[in-house]
Amino acid sequence: MAATQQRYLSSQSDQTGQGLAYSVDDQVKCSGEKNGCRRCRALGTTCRYNISMVGRVPGVRQRHGKNHDGDRPEAGLADEDPIITPSLACVAPFPTYLAPDSSLAVCRLIELLDVSIRRSPPLDEVMRISRAAATQLETVLTDWVSSSSASHECVCCVAVNLAISLLETSATDSVLPIVRFGTLTVEGEARRSVVQTMVRGEAQRWLEVVDRLQRGQGTMSLPGVPSVGEQSVVRVLSFWCEEFGRRLGGLVYGGVY
Questions:
Q1: 107 and 46 share a domain?
Q2: In a 3-state reduction of DSSP, which class is residue 37?
Q3: A single Gene Ontology molecular function, please (predicted)?
Q4: Which domain holds residue 7?
Q5: 32, 38, 39, 44 alpha-carbon torsion, rounded to 10°
Q6: Using an 8 Å Cβ cutoff, are 34 and 46 in contact?
Q7: 26 and 137: one domain?
Q8: Cα gap 235→134, rounded to integer Å
Q9: What is the tally of structural domains in the chain?
Q10: What backbone torsions phi and psi does residue 139 show, to the nearest 5 degrees?
Q11: Is residue 119 assigned to a domain?
């Protein structure tokens, strides 16, 4: 293009024979003729034909041509088989989001709860972890409503057990956390009341999760007649759910231990 083609003026070489010396300060835009422009010949100087790629985009005319059809490759419009066409740019489908496996998500939740119990976090962090865990388990149980199995139920029971243990640790009288509202520190009986109220609310939510887990045991996919081992797993899961209900009832109605 003429607008992007530049010729740079240079002075003739001196008598030392070192060749042409091109000066940046003397550069001017020429007419774009490869055999030399009229202005350079009139000044008696030599110009060098140089093409600048600044502002040039390869394939602009191809993209704006009359045969342009979106961003689809030309190989995709041909009659040949796109699988064996060597010039095809890409035959892969559009990227799709793949949700992580629910069992793996629950296992990561179990690891988080186990670490939190050993770390003894503050009360506000305990509440945040408990709410996130309950929400995730409710989502998992919803996904497993039509394809539940004994292994799924066992993994969820382990997570529920750790979540209840985390609440019990926070509600223990000997390790009551410090409660602050800004610069105000709540101590004594008022602190016990605040902790009891917060733990009670979380325990009530976990009672709903346990109840949903217990109702889902009847939908476990056991093909054919359940074996003795499968029946034993169902009895163990029922016992766990009853134990969870007893422990959560102590947090809801019994208050701080």
A1: no
A2: coil
A3: DNA-binding transcription factor activity, RNA polymerase II-specific
A4: 1-54
A5: 120
A6: no
A7: no
A8: 24
A9: 2
A10: -65, -40
A11: yes
Report d(CA 47, CA 11) in Å as an integer. Answer: 9
With a threshold of 0.85, does the pTM exceed it? no
Q: Mapping DSSP to helix (H, G, I), strand (E, B) and coil, where does residue 47 land?
A: strand
CA distances from 46 to 3, 8, 128, 145 (A): 20, 8, 77, 84
Q: Say yes or no: 135 and 235 in one domain.
A: yes
Instruction: Count Cβ atoms below 10 Å from residue 94 Cβ, excluding itself.
Output: 4
pLDDT at 161: 95
Position 189 pLDDT exceeds 70: yes
Cα–Cα dist 230/122, whole Å: 41
* pLDDT reported for residue 221: 45
User: Is 70 within the bounds of a domain?
Assistant: no
Is residue 16 pLDDT above 70, yes or no?
A: no
C-alpha distances out from residue 216 to 171, 206, 221, 238, Å: 29, 15, 10, 11
142 and 19 fall within a common domain: no
The answer to whether residue 136 sits within a structural domain is: yes
pLDDT tens per residue, range 98-131: 445 677 888 899 999 999 988 878 888 889 999 9
Q: Per the domain annotation, does 240 fall within a domain? A: yes
In this structure, what token pair is assigned to residue 49? Answer: 């034909």
Q: Do 149 and 244 lie in a common domain? A: yes
pLDDT interval class at 173 (50, 70, 90): low
